[in-house]
Amino acid sequence: MNLKEVNMKITADTILEEILTNYPETIPILARYGFYGVSCPAEMWASLKIVAQSRGILLEPLLDDLNRAIGTN
User: Could you give the number of structural domains in the chain?
Assistant: First the structure.
């Protein structure tokens, strides 16, 4: 079962790979925040919180925009 099947919100603990796989509509939003590519393969399996912190991205606005894009905000 994936996130889309259960209509779950994206949280700080959501793994980046799950977001990209289940919600491709979030790719433009991630790009706007500076996620142009995964600089380290391990980032794919890290939480959104960890990846955002490592890139100096504010988490709450990112979460709001991602959840708005998938219709859960």
Answer: 1
